[in-house]
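Hi all, long-time lurker, first post. I run a small reading group and we've been trying to get comfortable going from sequence to structure in the token notation. Rather than ask abstract questions, I figured I'd post a concrete chain and ask someone more experienced to write out its structure so we can walk through it together at our next meeting. Sequence below, copied exactly:
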Amino acid sequence: MAEGLARGGWSGRGIVAVPRGYEGEGDWPPGLAVHLGSHPMMDEASFSAGSSLFAFASTVESPALVLISGGSSACVERPVDGVTAEDLAEINHHLVRAGIPIDQINSVRKHLSSIKGGRLARLLPDGSRSWIWSDVPPGRADLVGSGPMSADPSSLENAAAILDGIGSGTARALARKLRSGSIPETPSAMDVEPELIADNRTLLEAAVAVARARGIDARVDFTQLDHDVETVAARIVFEIERLEPGTVAIRGGEPTVIVRGEGRGGRCSEVALRVLRLAEERGLESFEVLVGSSDGIDGNSGAAGYLVRGGSGLRGKIDQALDASDAHSLASEAGEAIVTGATGNNLRDIIVMARG
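-- Answer (accepted) --
Happy to help. Here is the structure in token form:
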């Protein structure tokens, strides 16, 4: 996005927060201060970037343009007054490992932040705008980066109830704080709503174009697969069984996963293994499935995604790998791990299915 500004002839002053690994990538426009954050877990760099953004926004005197992508919930953050960075980082850690929907995760993040849930918009002059590069379900721009420039449809009580379900001492203490009246509600209305510039549909349309340019009969369903990893795997197997040989089916979304162990993997490797297990149970062998994350980062695996093939004969090992959240090695053995490094995009996941 910063490179796009430079190509478009932008000039002025601004600030960008990016995850570690991107700092040497951009042709950064002059006048743009670059701050490093962390993703998917918040750390000191995330809070330093958030403090810099808060300070910068507080000095802006004319309408600003804010570009927001997925990943910014963790990459750039500043706690609301009365909440510590340590508590916010701990709760974020629990949330991303709990297997709960992104709208619930971000309801909590918004209410514990001084820049999310529309609060950044409140710092900026009237007339400021935002463009969204979306990694969330269609129609939910308020979830991208936890909605720093968007009205928030959730409430303090919504966030507190989600914290109740986390169950830790820190979560209970923060739930009490949200209910105490000491933290203000997030804005429920905005004069200017964000503009969408790309989302998962953009990614899937590009994939279809690539396939058809190579003479492949590619069919796409834009309905998002946003369920837990087991449900998504079942849907993939269902679609493979109905595929005609020589046809490719393309889907997108972002499955949820519960982290149960300290192994190496992510939602893409978990979906891939669960597909293999279900397919073997149903006697389905001649197929290939690609499950990949558009940002190049599948959990802590080091891979962007996995191409797996039926008939791997690994069913007896899969349960143990899943119980340890250690899907990477086995998914790689069943096909290949695809390693891209950070891609500079975050448009959710892509799933490509083919049957021999």
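A couple of things your group might point at:
The chain has a mean pLDDT of 94.
The longest helix spans residues 44-59.
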